[in-house]
Design goal:
A: 461 residues, mainly alpha, 17 helices, 71% helix, B: 183 residues, alpha+beta
Chain lengths: 461, 183
């Protein structure tokens, strides 16, 4: 059975590198993945990581309480820059949240088998990123206790939300996206929750997982309907994931502010979202597979495929930057031409150059296979790309607002301590939720891994 | 068999080593004329639905209805708000500015369809269902969601004969054939 090791440099053979290491059975994949949740004691590293991120979440709490007490004046925003860190962070987080549903829905419809071992935690990442994103528009409203005004409910005032406004579209897009992502994730979890219920030894775990599994027993009739529902959800989530960042880009594109009012925004926002989402999946996958010995399931092939998706979407983003630049110049419209000059020569041009460096120049290294298969390089690259995507939103939001039509209305923006505390706080919230997630739910879909084992053993016969 | 004893029996279950053995056994059992047959697997097995003679299910239809309700309801609501409930004349622009209503209509279509797909699937499957007689079987509750495949011939089948069913399952290479008791 033991085949000779293929030479690594041959591209034909390398392409066949496995998406699951050979020798696994239904039992071993189940044992290995469920053990992380059920039997393996939490490591010292986990406790340290959890404690640190928990402390950061407490800082977020302080920042929010101070905000509620004092109002948005504690931030760096002021007229004309009414959209500062809050909107930058919102767009950044919601972009990161795109990869999970993309991996689970679009790659599922395209029958890409390599999605199997990364879809679960990518979906969890999506949910947590959407949760972090949701914080910002809420606190940005100034009076967050009145945020329910944005939902159409029969109020005694007799008025309704303005359905012609992109801001209300955003409410519907983001809340629908959060809900559908949660449903998709939970449906995928049901068979695994049943596995955990049956394998848990302690009574409380049996009861909790048992309630969540809802009595799933793997009946063929249930699987039959389950597969229909899962396929339909994938089909529904696909246009949804493309619509969310499109609607977010409408927040800018519908406005007449120079640098925002362009038709290229929707596709270029979506590509950017996928770009940053995959970067974040890599940022999480690389330490995860190391810490829990999951190299058999999250193989080099996964990392390399994700690197290639980043390269492709990175090129779309580069195309977007180029056309944004070109069309502004070509339009001859003086405010647009002026804005491009401001990006290159204005007070925030270092952000623009850093953005080009992070998002366009550095990722070109991914053309080299040596880089794509170097775990450390990929990890650094993923962080650089996430930084670049944050800078992109900063450039879009801040440069346009500081330099619009009337020089008398120009202004400057700089973030305050509370801006940073809130942003870092959501990073802590995101990471803390991930720490909790890997301890209480299977980070890789066990049922789908069994399916993969069945398929790969078929191929070997 | 003794009749009052039989009333407590839910069925007869056999355990199989592989998905191929299970599909084969399902085919044979159905050939033998049993109809109240259910197979259990830790992952969706290809060919199992066909072997059991399962036809198209109603999840897609429910999803379509959910999507239509979400979409029509979403658009209708925005129309009602802007044209009937609180019309605002802004420079004589049309009240029914339908292109501006499309994003919310789209989102609500997807939301309605997704909710219908998930809750429709759960309802058709009869979940949540905390108790099922098969959970009484120790091997089933230990292995059915991990690495073994099960076939249960239920006692409500007209042809159900205790010994005959046991013999049939054993003849199909089932390990651990056992009765499932409903108490």
């Amino acid at each position: 059975m033991s085949a000779p090791t293929p030479p690594v440099h041959s591209p034909e053979i390398r392409r066949l590198s496995p998406i699951i290491e050979p020798g696994h059975t239904y039992g071993t994949v189940t044992d290995k993945i469920s053990a992380i949740v059920l039997t393996r004691p939490a490591s010292l590293g986990w406790f340290i990581g959890f404690t640190v991120t928990f402390a950061i979440v407490m800082m977020l709490n302080v920042a929010l309480i101070w905000l509620f007490a004092k109002g948005v004046g504690i931030w760096g925003i002021n007229i004309p820059i009414g959209w500062g860190f809050a909107i930058v962070n919102f767009v950044w987080w919601i972009g990161i949240g795109h990869a999970g549903t993309l991996i689970s829905a679009i790659l599922f419809l395209l029958n890409q088998k390599w999605r199997t071992s990364i879809n679960r935690f990518a979906e969890a990442m999506t949910l947590f990123a959407v949760a972090c994103a949701g914080v910002f528009p809420l606190i940005h409203t100034g009076r967050p206790w009145m945020a329910y005004y944005m939902f159409p409910y029969p109020s005694t005032m007799g008025i309704w939300p303005q359905f012609r406004s992109p801001v209300i579209w955003d409410v519907f897009a983001v809340s629908t996206y959060g809900t559908v992502s949660l449903l998709f994730w939970f449906v995928g979890l049901i068979p695994d929750l049943a596995t955990l219920r049956d394998r848990a030894i302690s009574k409380p775990k049996q009861i909790i997982y048992g309630m969540l599994a809802m009595g799933w027993r793997g009946s063929a009739r249930h699987w039959h309907r389950y597969q229909s529902a899962y396929l339909l959800l994938a089909g529904l989530a696909t246009p949804l994931v493309l619509s969310v960042h499109t609607v977010v880009s409408f927040d800018f594109a519908i406005a007449i502010v120079p640098g925002w009012h362009t038709t290229i925004f929707p596709p270029y926002f979506v590509a950017g979202a996928i770009y940053s989402g995959f970067a974040m999946v890599l940022t999480i996958a690389i330490p995860l597979r190391k810490a829990y010995d999951l190299e058999d399931f999250i193989t080099m092939r996964h990392l390399e495929n994700m690197a290639m998706v980043m390269l492709a979407t990175g090129l779309i983003v580069a195309y977007g930057y180029f056309f944004e630049f070109f069309l502004s110049k070509y339009s001859g419209q003086k405010f647009d031409v002026f804005l491009v000059d401001q990006r290159l020569h204005g007070p925030y041009n270092h952000f623009y150059f850093a953005l080009i460096l992070c998002n366009i120049l550095t990722p070109q290294l991914l053309w080299f296979q040596k880089v794509r298969t170097n775990v450390a390089m990929l990890f650094i690259m993923s962080i650089i790309i996430n930084t670049g995507m944050w800078l992109e939103r900063f450039v879009i939001v801040v440069i346009s607002l500081t330099r619009d039509f009337m020089p008398s209305a120009w202004g400057r923006y700089s973030a305050t301590f509370w801006d940073y505390a809130t942003f870092v706080g959501t990073l802590g919230l995101f990471t803390m939720l991930l720490f909790l997630f890997v301890r209480v739910l299977p980070a890789i879909s066990i049922a789908e891994m069994r399916e993969l084992v069945a398929e790969t053993s078929e191929e070997h016969k | 068999m003794i009749p009052e004893h039989r009333s407590h029996i839910f069925g007869m279950v056999g355990e199989f080593e592989s998905e191929h053995a299970l599909v084969h056994a399902v085919e044979k059992v159905r050939e033998a004329g049993y109809r109240h047959v259910e197979a259990y697997a830790p992952f969706p097995v290809e060919g199992l639905s066909e072997a059991l003679g399962l036809k198209r299910n109603r999840v897609p239809l429910i999803t379509l209805i959910g999507g239509l309700c979400g979409g029509l309801g979403g658009f209708g609501f925005q129309y009602w708000v802007n044209v009937v409930s609180y019309p605002l004349n802004i420079g004589g622009r049309p009240l029914n500015s339908w292109p501006a209503f499309i994003p919310v209509t789209f989102e609500l279509t997807v939301l309605g369809a997704a909710l219908a797909a998930v809750f429709g699937m759960l309802a058709l499957n009869g979940l949540p269902q905390p108790y099922h007689p098969l959970f009484n079987n120790e091997r089933f509750s230990k292995h059915a969601t991990t690495d073994r495949f099960y076939l249960c011939i239920e006692a409500r089948d007209k042809k159900f004969q205790f010994e005959e069913v046991a013999r049939l399952l054993q003849g199909l290479d089932a390990h651990h054939v056992a009765e499932v008791r409903d108490d």
